Amino acid sequence: MKKPFIICIVDDDEIYQYTITKTLDTQNLSRKVLMFSDGEEALEFMVDNIANIKDLPDLIFLDINMPIMDGFQFMEEYVKIAPRVGKNITIYMVSSSVDPVDIERAKKISEISDYIIKPIDSEELTKIINSLENNGQI
User: Fold this and answer.
1) What does the DSSP assignment read for 7-75?
2) What is the distance between the alpha carbons of residues 69 and 53, in angstroms, rounded to a whole number?
3) 76 phi and psi angles, rounded to 5 deg
4) Contact 2, 126 (CB under 8 A)
5) The pLDDT value given to residue 22
6) What value does the mean pLDDT take over residues 43-61?
């Protein structure tokens, strides 16, 4: 049986999108996966569905470097709408960047739960989701 979570991937890398979606499906870690190629698409979805908590994600994996609106720009806008979102959404910043400036910047944003360096393997992904579920965070 699939877990009842909606997981959102915000990343412009099609190979990463495919592999993480495949992992989520094969490990039965989600009920639904939302996929966006940039922060603006994801933010528009959030705003359009702000009153429909059943359609909003429980967990977001957010890349930093994307066209149009990057992960940090998404977070700047998300923080503004977060008080109107009717559910707790856990956000992980996921990037191939090991730049200490990016890591420190992400840590300063309280809405970001953690910074994960790509790629996320299936064991780590399962561990993250199970931990969030066991702690009642999703």
Assistant:
1) EEEE-S-HHHHHHHHHHHHHTT--SEEEEESSHHHHHHHHHHTTT-TTTS-SEEEE-S--SSS-HHHHH
2) 24
3) -60, -40
4) no
5) 92
6) 94
State residue 134's pLDDT score.
83
Distance between CA atoms of residues 65 and 38, nearest Å? 9
What is d(CA 134, CA 127) in angstroms, rounded to the nearest whole number? 10
Amino acid present at 110: S
Which amino acid is residue 11, in one-letter code? D
CATH topology of domain 6-134: Rossmann fold (3.40.50)
From the number of C-beta atoms within 10 Å of its C-beta (0-12, 13-18, 19+), residue 76 rates as middle
The rounded Cα 100 to chain-centroid distance in angstroms is 21
User: Does residue 27 contact residue 125 with C-beta atoms inside 8 Å?
Assistant: yes
DSSP, collapsed to helix, strand or coil, labels residue 87 as coil
Q: Give the residue-averaged pLDDT of 4-21.
A: 93
Q: How far apart are CA 105 and CA 44, in angstroms?
A: 24
Joined tokens for residue 50? 């702000």
Ordered by start, the domain boundaries in the chain are 6-134
